[in-house]
Each structure stands twice: as structure tokens, then as C-alpha cells.
Amino acid sequence: MAPRLVIFGRQGAGKGTQCAFLTDHYGAVHISTGDMLREAVAAGTEFGALAKPFMDSGQLLPDDVMVGVVRERLSESDVSERGFLLDGFPRTVPQAEALCAEVEVDLGVNLDVSEEVSRARMLDRGRNDDTPEAIDKRLAAYADQTVPTIEWFAAQDRMVTVDGVGEQAEVSARLVAAINERLGS
Ligand code: AMP
Asked: Which of 19, 75, 130, 166 lies 20 to 30 Å from 101, alpha-carbon distance?
């Protein structure tokens, strides 16, 4: 099986850890737009310089920019061989529309934690872009743009929601059970 999955979850939902588990479990390629952007910032590229102010303030980059970045990555051969787990994209309905116009997506997976849990975990991890203002902006962007994206997948009956609160292994087991049930494997 080369599953084509997109994962949703507020920051601090444990998405990074669970994505590492899922990509290993399914052999899929992990494509994290946040990681790609952070790498571009660290490498000091022109694209990184463009992205940084958005990231620092908790705002989303423009859809056309992100669609271009993901399109390029999805065109690489490892993706067609192994499938993918998209993490951090799509975050808006236009991004979802652009994605699904180009590639088949089997399932959206919502790793669900409340705003309160998300806020507490972000404050706890203390990353230097985790200022209270940036956290508020990120949660607002999630509510305004990403929740409708989740609903967009749900309306097409392509979404499972998994409770993200609990022991890491327990959440991993829930994810695999939910995904396998929906993908019929
Ligand atoms: P993440 O690690 O996924 O939370 O991404 C970190 C930051 O990168 C976000 O707060 C946004 O500024 C930017 N970003 C990542 N993915 C996207 C996307 N799909 N659309 C717009 N901005 C994004």
C-alpha cells in the first residue's frame, strides 16, 4: 500500500511525533511544509527570507506560494512509489482544492486536540517563535481557515478524526486503526 494521506492537527497536537511513526509504519514520504520552510530559513535562501516574517508572526504564507512548493515536492519519484503523508498542507480550502485537482488523496486524518491543550503545549515547548501573540494568531488561522479545510474533506467523506490526547503509543494505535479501517487494509 502506498497511502496518500493528509494530516491535520493544531500545533502541539503531537503531529510531528505521530507523523514520524506513521511514515515509518506505512513507508510513506513525510512532507512537512513547516519543516521545508524552516529549512529554507536556516539555509538563508531567498525563499526563506520571504517566509520568515509570516512564520514569526503566526500568519499563513500565500496559497499560491505554498501550492507551488508542494506541487514541486509531489512531482518527485519517491512520492509515486511510496505514497505520502502531507503535514501542514493543505491549511486552507483553496490549497485543498489545488491539491486534489492534481493528486488523488485517500484520506484526511484529524489529530484532534482542543485549543486549550494546543496553547498549553506550545507555551510548554518554548520554541522562540512561540510568543503568546504568535500562538494566538496561529490558533485563529487554524479556526478560520484550517477547520473549514477539515470540513471540506469531511463533506467528501474523506476524513477520520482521532483523539490526540493520551500516551504516544496509544494515539499511534488509534491512528493506525482508524486509517486501516478507512483504507480497507
Ligand atoms: P507548521 O510547522 O506546520 O506549524 O508551519 C510553521 C509556519 O509555516 C506556519 O505558521 C505558517 O507561517 C507557515 N506554513 C506552513 N505550512 C503552510 C501552509 N500550508 N500554508 C501557509 N503557511 C504555511
From this structure: 19
Task: Name the one residue in this structure whose C-alpha cell is 527570507.
Answer: 49
Give the residue, out of 55, 87, 131, 139, with the most ligand 1 atoms within 8 A of its beta carbon, to mutate for a pocket test. Answer: 55
pLDDT of 185 > 70? The answer is no
Q: Do 33 and 60 contact (CB within 8 A), yes or no? A: no
How far away, in angstroms, is 61 Cα from ligand 1 center?
7
The total number of residues written for the chain in this structure? 185
CA dist 127 to 60, 77, 131, Å?
18, 34, 8
Range of 121's domain? 4-183
Q: Which atom of ligand 1 is nearest to the CA of 55?
A: 12
This prediction has a pTM of: 0.94
Chain segment 96-131, per-residue pLDDT in tens: 999 999 999 999 999 999 999 999 999 998 888 889
Q: How many domains does the chain have?
A: 1
CA dihedral 55, 48, 93, 150 (to 10 degrees): -60
CATH number at residue 112: 3.40.50.300
User: Rounded to 5 degrees, what angle do the CA atoms 77, 78, 81 make?
Assistant: 90
